Amino acid sequence: MCGIIGIVGRTAVAPRLVESLRRLEYRGYDSAGVAAIVDGKLERRRAVGKLRALDEHLAAEPLGGTVGIGHVRWATHGAPTEANAHPHASGRVMAVHNGIIENYAELKAELIAKGRTFESQTDTEVAVQLIDQYLSEGQAPLAAFQSALARFQGAYALAVLIEGEDRLVLGARRGSPLVVGYGDGEMFIGSDALAVGPFTNRVAYLDEGDVVAIDDTSARILDAAGHDAIRPVRVIPASAALVEKGNYRHFMEKEIHEQPDSCQHTLAAYVDPVALKASPPADVDFKALNRIQIVACGTASYAGLIGKYLIERIAGLPVDVEVSSEFRYREAALSPGTLAVAVSQSGETADTLAALRFCKAQGLVTAAIVNAHQSTMAREADVLWPTHAGPEIGVASTKAFTAQVSVMAALAVAAAAQRGRIDAAQEAHLVHVLLEAPRLISESLQVEDTIREIAHELGRARDVLYLGRGAMYPLALEGALKLKEISYIHAEGYAAGELKHGPIALIEEDTPVIVIAPSDSLFEKTASNMAEVIARGARVIMITDAEGQRHAPPGARVVTAPACDPLIAPLVFAGAIQLLAYYTAVQKGADVDQPRNLAKSVTVE
Ligand code: F6R
Fold first, then answer.
1. Does domain 256-439 have CATH number 3.40.50.10490?
2. C-alpha 485 to ligand 1 mean position (Å)
3. Is 392 in the pocket of ligand 1 (CB under 6 A)?
4. Of these four, 272, 401, 500, 551, which has the most CB atoms within 10 Å of its CB?
5. DSSP letter at 175?
6. Residue 558 to residues 86, 450, 575, Cα–Cα distance (Å)
7. Which of 340, 376, 371 lies closest to 358, judged by CA?
């Protein structure tokens, strides 16, 4: 949801800003822009569309200077036009912003009354004009910045240049992340560690309400109360700094194929392979819990739903799952003994963060299953249950999803063991099952030729239905979401048994219906639903194992996944639905890693 970078450097700043923005493009790609201080004056270049367009603009009209800021935009207020692209400018100020300033209309009216005119529809321009207003009233740069921040309601991460301050970039965060990068005689601020990764691996994460001023060698950090503060500098792992596609065409393809590894790394933190015990990295007394409340958005919420199926079945512990955007506003009744669990790749999703904070304010113990280990959720939750998927760049989540599901499966076993629902032998068996998952995921991905053929047909469809039962139902929802978001084909996921209660009316001659049906205790029921849609002309694509394949209805296309225990079936069957979406999108020529209208990290409501 917009990415920002600020550099006080020693070499040409424009190419460095663009290099950083390339790593931030997953956060937004409606437009991009950079600004620099050139011979004491502020200059900017902006372009609508992907970063390529800015690159071309910079090639035609180079930008000098060694100090600058940059931005990739995911439009909230105002269409993706050049006028609405960042950096925004007013008088002595240029700034880039991630977030939403909610009271911008009121501030804008106040500034217009002072005689100021606006060139964009953005909330950010209001912020810039307000800072400039305070400067013009005689306040010093940092003071003017702080005065403006004190007026903002909403969420922001900002990076600001001020004319007359040649070696200074100001930054602030509230509700949107911001890190400070410590270089060798140069300093950086950026939306995440990836942004500053090309320049330094020494990073400090700012806290809510922090303000920072960077110059050539130092960062002065002020906390929300305006007091000087120290934020620990950490050395970030190379994986966070190095993000390349390697031999793959898209990050999504690469990330799908990384799942055996990401699942293994994640599980390694949750099970003891020698003692064959589940051993989550942070202790929670599952015996003392009455309930788990999961809050999450999109794909992460489907991982949560899979968690519900696994944890309730194996550990007998009730689990509720709700999308954060609803949960946060509906004044949910929470009972004592409930553990609130936020599930999030980024750890920054605004609605999930708000839901987590709501639960905390109600006195619940909170946990966060997050992939970004320094994110706000990771830091605010009482318990951190990390996923170890590594940086996920493709906007459509794949390896983060299966890492979340891996954690859910391991927690189900841990909770069952602690609550006495399984004995040591059963625990050892289930841990053994978990440890088989990476190998089986790897096998499950060896279906690309079949999938490519099916994708060819799917690419022509107008509507696609996904069906599943049990833990395959959330996977059906996830399959439909993946197809929609990257191939723009309308798709819906349903619980297979729900079909006859309405959705079956959608079936026409040749409507593709993707049925996720491992040969488990529910197989026969799902097979009946398949027969129902085939009788109405549907083209069934069945994702099943070898045993299920033997019972495939005539005419069904079959994608075969390895047979596995139901505990890990959501992990082993995920690859096929991801590859189906991927190859359909590729076949349609869609921009897989940067689908239209989406952004990787949704830090606004
Ligand atoms: C879909 C997708 C989104 C995210 C959702 C939550 O492929 O990636 O639905 O799952 O925006 O994001 P996080 O997990 O960062 O909270």
1. yes
2. 11
3. no
4. 401
5. B
6. 49, 8, 14
7. 340
Beta strands in 17-168 (DSSP E): 31-38, 41-48, 67-73, 88-90, 93-101, 154-162
SS3 262: helix
CA 518 to chain centre: 29
- CA–centroid distance, residue 298 to ligand 1 (Å): 5
Which architecture does CATH list for 445-588?
3-Layer(aba) Sandwich (3.40)
560 in contact with ligand 1, CB cutoff 6 A: no
Give pLDDT tens digits for 524-575.
989 888 888 898 899 999 999 999 999 998 889 999 999 999 999 999 999 9
Q: Which two tokens stand for residue 411?
A: 């927690």
CATH classification code of 3-247: 3.60.20.10
Distances (CA, A) of 575 to 71, 162, 402, 496, 519: 34, 49, 9, 20, 17
- pLDDT recorded at residue 603: 63
Short-list 580, 578, 574, 550, CA closest to 561 = 574
CA distances from 102 to 107, 376, 428 (A): 10, 21, 52
- Say if CB 534 and CB 465 are below 8 A apart: no
Cβ neighbours around 50 below 10 Å, total: 16
State how far the Cα of 582 lies from the Cα of 257, in Å rounded to an integer.
12
pLDDT at 241: 52
Structure token digits, residue 475: 């996977």
Nearest-atom number in ligand 1 for the CA of 370 is 14
* pTM across the whole model: 0.77
pLDDT at position 528, please? Answer: 87
Return the bridge partners of 95, or none.
Answer: 88, 160
DSSP letter at 274? T
Q: Where in the chain is the domain with CATH 3.40.50.10490?
A: 256-439, 445-588
Joined together, the tokens standing for residue 75 give 């439009």
Whole-angstrom Cα distance, residue 500 to residue 462? Answer: 21
Numbered ranges of CATH 3.60.20.10 in the chain: 3-247
Q: Which residues of the chain have pLDDT under 50?
A: none
**Contact yes or no for 583/557 (Cβ under 8 A):** no
Q: Which string of b and e fits 92-123 if b means at least 16 CB within 10 Å?
A: bbbbbbbbbbeebeebbebbeeeebebebebb
CA of 361 to the centre of ligand 1 (A): 24
Using DSSP's 3-state secondary structure scheme, residue 516 falls into strand
Instruction: List the beta strands (DSSP E) in 436-570.
Output: 463-468, 490-495, 512-516, 539-544, 557-560
The single-letter DSSP state of residue 424 is H
Q: Tell me, yes or no, if 564 is annotated catalytic.
A: no
* Residue 297 annotated among the catalytic residues of the structure: no
